[in-house]
């Protein structure tokens, strides 16, 4: 499946998450304070909560409901109560376009 435009880079605010959906897959797109765009699964593995409603700090996204923090680069939970990772998707930038293919994930723990 080819990568799909999910938003424009100009639509992303630093240190916030934006929820997008590609072929039924909910994804949280984050522009971190260093200017890197990340894409991780938008559903917390602990409580089935939208992560894009959470808090971005450095390279983590924290679930607003129970406080689990997920690495934006590996998808691994860094704090309890979550213990299962979320998927991390490959992000491609084409000018101002942010492209994601939900069928292509970064292997857990590999980072970017």
From TrEMBL:
Keywords: 2Fe-2S, Iron, Iron-sulfur, Metal-binding
Protein known as: Non-heme iron oxygenase ferredoxin subunit
SUPFAM superfamilies, alphabetized: ISP domain
UniProt cross-references to PANTHER family, sorted A to Z: 3-PHENYLPROPIONATE_CINNAMIC ACID DIOXYGENASE FERREDOXIN SUBUNIT, FERREDOXIN-RELATED
Domain (Rieske) ranges: 4-100
The organism's place on the tree of life at top rank: Bacteria
Pfam families linked to this entry: Rieske
UniProt keyword annotation of Isomerase present: no
PROSITE patterns, per database record: RIESKE
Gene source species: Lysobacter korlensis
InterPro entries per record: Rieske_2Fe-2S, Rieske_2Fe-2S_sf
């Amino acid at each position: 499946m080819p990568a799909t435009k999910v938003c424009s880079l100009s639509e992303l605010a630093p240190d916030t998450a934006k929820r997008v959906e590609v072929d039924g897959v909910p994804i949280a797109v984050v522009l971190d304070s260093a200017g890197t765009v990340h894409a991780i699964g938008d559903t917390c593995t602990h409580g089935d909560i939208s992560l894009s409603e959470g808090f971005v700090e450095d390279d983590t996204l924290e679930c607003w409901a129970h406080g689990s923090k997920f690495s934006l680069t590996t998808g691994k939970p860094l704090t309890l109560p979550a213990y299962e990772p979320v998927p991390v998707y490959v992000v491609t930038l084409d000018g101002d376009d942010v492209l994601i293919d939900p069928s292509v994930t970064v292997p857990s723990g590999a980072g970017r």
